[in-house]
Amino acid sequence: MLKKTKQLAAFTxxxxxVALLVLSGGLLVFDGLSRLMRQEVHYQTQSRQKDWLxxxxxxxxxxxxxxxxxxxxxxxxxxKKGQALAFGQSKSDDFRKTNNKGQGYQPMVYGVSTSNIxxxxxxxxxxxxxxxxxxxxxxxxxxxxx
Length: 146
Description:
Blueprint: H1 13-46, H2 48-64, E1 67-72, E2 75-80, E3 83-89, E4 94-99, E5 106-110, E6 112-120, E7 123-130, E8 135-141
Antiparallel strand pairs: 1-2, 2-3, 3-4, 4-5, 6-7, 7-8
Protein backbone atom coordinates (compact mmCIF):
# COMPACT_ATOMS: atom_id res chain seq x y z
CA MET A 1 0.00 0.00 0.00
CA LEU A 2 1.00 3.48 -0.71
CA LYS A 3 1.38 5.78 2.15
CA LYS A 4 0.13 9.30 1.60
CA THR A 5 1.87 12.02 3.48
CA LYS A 6 0.55 15.47 3.33
CA GLN A 7 2.58 18.36 4.64
CA LEU A 8 0.62 21.37 5.58
CA ALA A 9 2.22 24.77 5.28
CA ALA A 10 2.09 26.38 8.69
CA PHE A 11 3.81 29.03 10.74
CA THR A 12 5.85 28.12 13.70
CA UNK A 13 5.47 29.96 16.96
CA UNK A 14 8.83 31.62 16.43
CA UNK A 15 7.81 32.99 13.03
CA UNK A 16 4.61 34.41 14.54
CA UNK A 17 6.55 36.14 17.32
CA VAL A 18 8.99 37.67 14.83
CA ALA A 19 6.09 38.95 12.70
CA LEU A 20 4.43 40.51 15.77
CA LEU A 21 7.71 42.12 16.77
CA VAL A 22 8.17 43.66 13.31
CA LEU A 23 4.57 44.94 13.24
CA SER A 24 4.74 46.46 16.73
CA GLY A 25 8.09 48.11 15.95
CA GLY A 26 6.65 49.64 12.78
CA LEU A 27 3.62 50.95 14.66
CA LEU A 28 5.84 52.47 17.35
CA VAL A 29 7.96 54.24 14.73
CA PHE A 30 4.82 55.51 12.98
CA ASP A 31 3.38 56.75 16.29
CA GLY A 32 6.62 58.58 17.15
CA LEU A 33 6.79 60.26 13.75
CA SER A 34 3.12 61.27 14.02
CA ARG A 35 3.73 62.92 17.40
CA LEU A 36 6.82 64.70 16.08
CA MET A 37 4.89 65.99 13.08
CA ARG A 38 2.03 67.22 15.29
CA GLN A 39 4.49 69.11 17.54
CA GLU A 40 6.21 70.68 14.52
CA VAL A 41 2.91 71.84 13.02
CA HIS A 42 1.90 73.31 16.38
CA TYR A 43 5.24 75.12 16.70
CA GLN A 44 5.04 76.50 13.16
CA THR A 45 1.54 77.87 13.69
CA GLN A 46 2.46 79.47 17.02
CA SER A 47 5.94 80.75 16.14
CA ARG A 48 6.37 84.51 15.75
CA GLN A 49 9.97 84.04 14.57
CA LYS A 50 8.83 83.30 11.04
CA ASP A 51 6.47 86.30 11.08
CA TRP A 52 9.28 88.56 12.28
CA LEU A 53 11.67 87.39 9.57
CA UNK A 54 9.10 88.00 6.84
CA UNK A 55 8.20 91.39 8.33
CA UNK A 56 11.80 92.58 8.66
CA UNK A 57 12.66 91.52 5.11
CA UNK A 58 9.53 93.19 3.74
CA UNK A 59 10.23 96.41 5.67
CA UNK A 60 13.86 96.44 4.56
CA UNK A 61 12.75 96.07 0.93
CA UNK A 62 10.23 98.91 1.33
CA UNK A 63 12.84 101.24 2.85
CA UNK A 64 15.62 100.50 0.33
CA UNK A 65 14.28 102.95 -2.23
CA UNK A 66 12.77 105.40 0.26
CA UNK A 67 14.02 108.69 1.70
CA UNK A 68 13.52 109.44 5.40
CA UNK A 69 11.16 112.35 6.05
CA UNK A 70 10.60 112.19 9.83
CA UNK A 71 9.65 110.08 12.82
CA UNK A 72 6.69 111.52 14.67
CA UNK A 73 3.88 110.19 16.89
CA UNK A 74 5.40 106.70 16.82
CA UNK A 75 5.21 106.58 13.03
CA UNK A 76 7.92 106.48 10.39
CA UNK A 77 7.30 108.84 7.46
CA UNK A 78 9.22 108.26 4.21
CA UNK A 79 9.11 109.43 0.62
CA LYS A 80 9.27 106.59 -1.87
CA LYS A 81 9.62 107.81 -5.45
CA GLY A 82 7.33 110.78 -4.83
CA GLN A 83 4.82 108.82 -2.79
CA ALA A 84 4.50 109.79 0.89
CA LEU A 85 4.21 106.68 3.09
CA ALA A 86 3.90 106.03 6.81
CA PHE A 87 4.75 102.90 8.81
CA GLY A 88 3.51 102.22 12.30
CA GLN A 89 1.23 100.25 14.59
CA SER A 90 -2.47 100.63 14.03
CA LYS A 91 -5.08 100.91 16.76
CA SER A 92 -5.56 97.15 16.48
CA ASP A 93 -2.85 94.49 16.73
CA ASP A 94 -1.00 94.99 13.44
CA PHE A 95 1.94 97.01 12.15
CA ARG A 96 1.02 98.47 8.80
CA LYS A 97 2.03 100.57 5.84
CA THR A 98 -0.27 103.48 4.91
CA ASN A 99 -0.03 106.75 3.08
CA ASN A 100 1.19 109.75 5.09
CA LYS A 101 -2.40 110.58 6.15
CA GLY A 102 -2.98 107.12 7.59
CA GLN A 103 -5.23 106.01 4.75
CA GLY A 104 -4.91 102.62 3.15
CA TYR A 105 -4.60 99.27 4.81
CA GLN A 106 -1.56 97.14 4.18
CA PRO A 107 -0.79 95.13 7.32
CA MET A 108 2.76 93.85 7.47
CA VAL A 109 2.62 91.76 10.66
CA TYR A 110 -0.15 90.79 13.08
CA GLY A 111 -0.09 90.09 16.80
CA VAL A 112 1.79 93.24 17.81
CA SER A 113 1.23 94.29 21.41
CA THR A 114 3.31 97.47 21.41
CA SER A 115 5.77 99.19 19.12
CA ASN A 116 8.09 102.15 19.50
CA ILE A 117 9.77 104.03 16.66
CA UNK A 118 12.69 106.34 17.39
CA UNK A 119 15.23 108.25 15.30
CA UNK A 120 18.85 109.23 15.90
CA UNK A 121 20.09 111.31 12.96
CA UNK A 122 19.62 108.95 9.98
CA UNK A 123 19.25 105.77 12.07
CA UNK A 124 15.70 104.55 12.69
CA UNK A 125 14.97 102.03 15.43
CA UNK A 126 11.71 100.09 15.60
CA UNK A 127 11.08 98.07 18.78
CA UNK A 128 8.23 95.57 18.50
CA UNK A 129 6.70 93.49 21.29
CA UNK A 130 4.36 90.72 20.19
CA UNK A 131 1.34 89.52 22.15
CA UNK A 132 3.14 86.30 23.12
CA UNK A 133 6.00 88.30 24.72
CA UNK A 134 8.54 88.07 21.89
CA UNK A 135 10.57 91.30 21.63
CA UNK A 136 12.43 92.29 18.49
CA UNK A 137 14.29 95.38 17.26
CA UNK A 138 14.63 96.55 13.66
CA UNK A 139 17.39 99.05 12.80
CA UNK A 140 17.66 100.84 9.49
CA UNK A 141 20.30 103.40 8.52
CA UNK A 142 19.06 105.80 5.86
CA UNK A 143 22.52 107.37 5.44
CA UNK A 144 23.79 104.27 3.63
CA UNK A 145 21.82 105.07 0.46
CA UNK A 146 23.65 104.45 -2.79
